Amino acid sequence: MWRRLWTLVTPAARGPRRVRPCTRLGSGGPALGCGATIFALSSGQGRCGIAVIRTSGPASSQALRSLTAPRDLPPARSACLRVLSDPRSGEPLDRGLVLWFPGPQSFTGEDCAEFHVHGGPAVVSGILEALGSVSGLRPAEAGEFTRRAFAHGKMSLTEVEGLADLIHAETEAQRRQALRQLDGELGHLCRALAHVEAYIDFGEDENLEEGVLEQADNEVQRLEVALGAHLRDARRGQRLRLGVHVVVAGPPNAGKSSLVNLLSRKPVSIVSPEPGTTRDVLETPVDLAGFPVLLSDTAGLREGMGQVEQEGILRARKRLEQADIILAVLDASDLASPSSCNFLDTVVTPAGVRSPSGNSQRLVLVLNKSDLLPPGGLDHRPDLSPHLLLSCLTGEGLAGLLEVLKKELAAVHQHRLQSCLDALGHYKQAKDLALAAEALRVARGHLACLTGRGGTDEILDIIFRDFCVGK
Asked: What is the C-alpha separation between 92 and 83, in angstroms, rounded?
C-alpha cells in the first residue's frame, strides 16, 4: 500500500519538521480583525411576534449594558427578562429577553449578544437605532456574521454553504440535504483530497506536519459511512441547488409544451396547434414530488425546416446530451407518422441501451393525447418501449407520471452516490500515492454533480487554511 511505502521515508530524509502557526486567510470583507462590533436584525424583515437582533464583537457587552442599564450582564447563555431603553435619552423601548454569549463559545467565536423583542416595526427600528448610537457598533454587512464564524474557525466552508442552502431551501428534499451538509459531512472528501495533494506537492519543500495521510484516511472513512447511510435510506442524498435536469423532447405537436405547463403549473410555453411553435429552449425550475428540477422545453425534432427552427432543433439535441432525465413525448394517436418513427429510432431506442461506462442518463416515454385514442385504447406494439399514457388536456395519467419521475429522480442521485463510493474504494486499494489522489478526484467529480461544489478553488483554500503553504 502507498501509505506504508511513504512511512518508510524517514523524517531525517525529508528534512527537519517544523510546525508553523496557521492563520486563516481573510475573506476580503469589512471589519474582520479590525475590532468593529456589528449588529443586525437576524429574524427577517416584516411584522412578526418576536424579532431577534444580534451583535458580534468586542463591544457587545457594552451594547448590552447600555440598553439594559443599570442592570449588569446576564449569566452566560441564559435568557433574562430586561427593560430595554435608549442609552441617549433613557426612554423605554421594549421589554424583552436578552442573552449573553461570551467568546469563543458563540456562533461567531466573538462576544455576542441577542435581544429578543416584540416584532413590530417601531420596536425593531428603535432597538436598531439605539444600538447604532453605542460607540464602536455599526450595522453588519450581508452575511458578515457567518463570515466571522468562518474566519474564527467556528464553521467550515462546506458548513457555511450548507447554512446558506438551509436558509434558501425551496423544497423538503433540499431542506433535509442542507441540514446534513450543515454537519460538514460533504467536506470530508475535499479535506482528504487536499491533504493528499498537499503531501504530494509540498511534502518535502514545506515540511508538513506529521499525520497528514492518516488524516486523509480518516476523512475518507467518515465519508464512506455517510454515503453508505445515504444509499441505505431512499430519502437521503438529494440534489442540492439547481436540481436534476429534466428535458422534454419529441416531434412537433406531440404536446411537449402542454406537459411543461402541466408540470410547472404555470404557462411557461406557448401552446398552439401550429407545428414548430417552440423555437428555443425554455427552462423553468419546478418542484416535483419534493425534488428540485430544472425543466426544459425544447423545439420539436424534425428535418427540412427553416433556418431559425433548425437552430432551435440543434439546441434541443445539445440539451438532450446534457439531460439527467429525458421525458420523451409522442402523440399516442399518431405513432405511425414519419416524425414519431424517426424520434423512436434516434432518441428512444438508443437511450434504452445502457452504456458500459455507466451513464446515468435516463428516459421516460410518455404517450400524450390518450383522450384521442379509440375506446379499445392503444394497439399492441411489441416494438414500443415501456411507456406511460397521459392526457395533458384532462390530466388523466399525471399521478402515475409523477410517481415514475420520483423514482427516476431518486435513481439519478443513487447512481452518483454509488459512483462516489466506488471511487473511494479505489482510493483505499491504490498502491501509488498519485493513483490514490486521482481516485479522490473522481469521487469529488461525482459528488460535485450533486452539490455543485468541491472545485479546485475549495481544495486550494483547504490546503492554505490547514497547512499555510507559503506563509
From this structure: 7
